[in-house]
Amino acid sequence: MSKVCLCLVLSVWLGTAPAAPQTTSGMPQPSAGEGPLSNDTSLATDSAATAEFARGDERSAKLDRSITDTAQIEREWAEVFDAWRSAVLSGGTDSSVPVFSGATNADGNSRWIDPEGTASAASLRRTEGLEVALLRRLHGLPPPIRKAWRARFELAGQDALRQAGRDPALLASLERTLPATPAALSAAANLADLALEAGHQHFAHTWIERARVHAQLLDQDASTWSLALDQRARWLEEHSPAPDQGVWQTAQGLSLEREIGLVDLSQLARAQRPLVGRGPQSGGAWLADGTLVIQSTQFAGTGERARGDDWISRMDLSSNKITWSSSLREIAQSLELSLASNTVPREHPGWPHRPCTDGQRVILVCNTRPAALVCLDFGASKDPSDPPRLSWAWISPGDEQAVQRAVPGERPEPIGAQSCDAGARFEPGPVWIDSVLLVQTRQAEESTGGSRQAGVLRAALVGIDAATGWPLFKRTLARGSEVAREGTRFAGVSASQSTGQPLAANRGATLAATNLGTAAVFDACDGRQAYALKTRRKARETRGFAGTLAAATLAQHAGFLHAPADSDRMYFLRADQDLGSFSAPDGPAKLDGLFLSAPLPIEQAEALMGGDLAGALLLSRAGRSRTLAQWDPATGARLEAVYAGLGESFTGSGLLSAQRAYYTTDRGLWLVDRTRELFLLDFEAVPTDLPFGGDIAARDDRVLVLGPHAVWVFRAR
After folding, report:
1. Contact partners, residue 200, CB within 8 Å, separation at least 6
2. The pTM of the whole model exceeds 0.85
3. Cα dihedral value 275, 281, 287, 290, nearest 10
4. CA distances from 369 to 272, 283, 308, 373, 422 (A)
5. Angle, in degrees to the nearest 10, between helices 182-197 and 223-238
6. Model confidence over 244-298: pLDDT tens digits?
7. Tens digits of per-residue pLDDT, 493-533?
8. How many CB atoms lie within 10 A of CB 226?
9. Residues near 692 by Cβ (< 8 Å), separated by ≥ 6?
10. What distance separates the 2 farthest-apart alpha carbons in the chain?
């Protein structure tokens, strides 16, 4: 690039900074459907990195456009680049910064525009990872200036690439600290290859997409890489597991085959009635051999706070039998651990059991005393009646005691504050992405004197090596309090009992929603944060969404449909921080922003089932009745299925395929056609002495309703 060309570009760029925030035509505006946030939750930020980004932003905003000396201009940009890179080096993958750095140009306007109004100097609503913050700034530069960035760091990148070899940690460090250089592009491609060799398809996809970002920032010089990245992506697509094509996805009808008890009913103190957003909800995980592992809670005692024990059962569909069943306390005896019954939260948003699996091993969150995160290996024997082997467990005694990792035959060892806070409680709904297990934790925060502060909670996301149970990273999610409750239809006045939402994964991106007023998206590869966002919080006297379902994934839009239990709004969010979602200093935003659609109010909805941008599917009230409803976020149009009878209540979160919707009321199982305006295909009433209902699991031509004490098996046809 010639010096004359550089001067001309700088003169034009510096003289055309926008005078006010700009928006892309048609971009959804949160204020259109959201209203005031009423949210005082704190988002974590890195003060050193924030200061360095602000230093670079201030310098870039106040570059004197009257300067004509090229050497001086290059020196000034060198100071900007060094400050930005210093920000990334000052923190790690666990660090985040505000979107608004506080820097302004000579006119007093920010050079880094947030077109959606989600960031401001006065109210910290959104944060982003350091890597995203740097990439966004580089994306906003004209190509000639990005070439100056490359020229400054290209040699350092080449040296780092030679030293890294095939070391994943060194390659990842190079990729995040020297972006928009050929070395970063090569490092991301090498990491994708290493992930493919290890069979980690989600990680491979993540590294391919990161390589594409570097290729984009390298402009025409990266054309030779496009073909190579496309080849890797095609290979990954060709070798991805085939989608489930079970009969249940297109069924026309249902028939009840059998009711199977999970426990000896004579031993129950009382029968639990399943309701969406109330108490524990049974859940299941399919093993590779087609058997289903079911986690449920059986109560002892009476009242709203009865004691509950977690039970684990294995069901064989070929025989419609429970082949093995045991309480968690019996399983833990192999580790010489004593797990006592615990008080099970009975209030909204409930406690959803959501075990996850790789096809052989199953991860369970158990709300016992002490709280436990347990890995059971069902692949050690081919006989489905054999008990599983306990691989490892995390034990959280509570209060001030450190969380411990326990392995059979070894002495339990403290994990330490860097991996999990002392006294942390594991939240339901972990996710397993390739070799990494992600689980959310929550604990009461300590006051200055060391005691616990009533109502002040801290939520975190923990990454664990799923094979060994060894901790990999911890990410702070939020510090805040629950929405106070008083006399709602879900509960009376009570102490802290709510939970975080089950985690939701869209390829390698994971949405962690705390139900403390925040949601954050992380990468499972190394725990990098894409963004953290405050959501609107409901008034204490109003309803929120039932929290038994993880946020729905929007596969075609790389996003999430998020219905927080502490909110009266539903959000359509991107799965990553789009580099084009901020106005470049030389023009308006080129791509859509973080919100894929304006937030929708809860109205009469009770729980989210799923859906996409064409329509969100919700379990909803309809006057005195209940029904499945579809809401179009763009037009506001509503569709409703056939109403349930008066007095019927929803008993589970339901299940969706691309063409069908299944949900339960306390009288039976409903089957609806999504392609024909929610046409009712079948309703199967269930005569039973037990309270009917629960969440749904499906495989091939079987649809199972997982109740607290029994499983109902239906044949789809």
Report:
1. 434, 435
2. yes
3. -30
4. 21, 20, 11, 12, 14
5. 20
6. 788 999 999 999 999 998 877 666 656 778 888 788 889 999 999 999 999 998 7
7. 344 467 889 999 988 899 999 999 999 999 988 899 999 99
8. 12
9. 274, 651, 664, 666, 667, 668, 686, 705, 707, 712
10. 89
Q: Which amino acid, residue 449?
A: G
What does the angle CA 596 – CA 598 – CA 601 come to, to the nearest 5 degrees? 130
- The letter for the amino acid at 611 is G
Q: d(Cα 299, Cα 302) in Å, to the nearest integer?
A: 8
Q: Which DSSP string do the residues of 233-249 spell out, in sequence order?
A: HHHHHHTSPPPP--GGG
Q: How many CA atoms lie within 13 A of 334 on its CB side?
A: 17
- HEC sequence for 670-689: EEEEHHHCCEEEEEEECCCC
Listed in sequence order, the residues at least 6 apart from 442 whose beta carbon sits closer than 8 Å to its beta carbon are: 424, 425, 427, 457, 458, 459, 460, 499, 500, 514
| Rounded Cα–Cα distance for residues 51 and 183 (Å) | 27
**Looking at the chain, how many residues does it have?**
717
CA separation (Å) from 301 to 306, 338, 372, 493? 5, 20, 22, 21
Interhelix angle 201-217/223-238, rounded to 10 degrees, is 160
Q: Which pair of structure tokens corresponds to residue 375?
A: 């890995």
**Nearest one of 714, 711, 716 to 322, comparing CA atoms:** 711
Residues whose CB falls within 8 Å of the CB of residue 158, separated by 6 or more in sequence, listed in order:
182, 183
- Nearest Cα neighbor of 702 from 693, 711, 715 is 715
Cα–Cα distance measured from residue 144 to residue 150, given in angstroms and rounded to the nearest whole number: 10
Helix (H) or strand (E) holding 90: helix 70-90
Q: How confident is the model at residue 487 (pLDDT cuts 50, 70, 90)?
A: very low
Query: How many angstroms separate the CA atoms of 409 and 403, rounded?
Result: 18
User: How many helices (H) and strands (E) would you count in the chain?
Assistant: 10, 40
Strand 351-352 with 280-281, pairing? parallel
426: its two tokens: 């594991």
Pairing between strand 351-352 and 356-357?
unpaired
Burial of 297 (0-12, 13-18, 19+ CB in 10 A): buried
Distance CA 500, CA 379 (A): 30
